[in-house]
Design a protein that fits this description.
This protein is mainly α. It has one domain. It contains 2 helices and no strands. The relative contact order is 0.04.
Length: about 100
């Protein structure tokens, strides 16, 4: 092999080695990002659960306040109670199928 061919071959080897190093770095970065994504998803699910729980508590408090109040608020409470009773009736109907 001539010196020129050896030089070209060595250049190709260096480029391949460089590409391998970059590939490994990208794979490591990809793994890190996947782990970070999974952590963020778990965090999001936990926060969503808390939000749902707080919404339920807020609805219950609103209902209690409506029952204890006078006038329009009592009417709102009755409407909410009727809505909840209808939802329960629907659930019972689905269970009876």
């Amino acid at each position: 092999m001539s010196a020129e061919q050896t030089e070209i071959l060595e250049g190709i080897r260096q480029k391949i080695q460089s590409a391998k190093v970059r590939l490994k770095e990208q794979q490591d970065e990809n793994i890190r990002l996947k782990e970070q994504y999974e952590d963020l998803q778990k965090s999001d699910q936990q926060k969503q659960s808390v939000i749902d729980e707080l919404k339920q508590k807020n609805q219950k408090l609103s209902l209690v306040n409506g029952i204890m109040a006078d006038g329009e608020e009592t009417q709102d409470a009755r409407i909410q109670i009727n809505r909840i009773v209808r939802e329960i009736d629907k659930c019972i109907a689905l269970l009876n199928r």
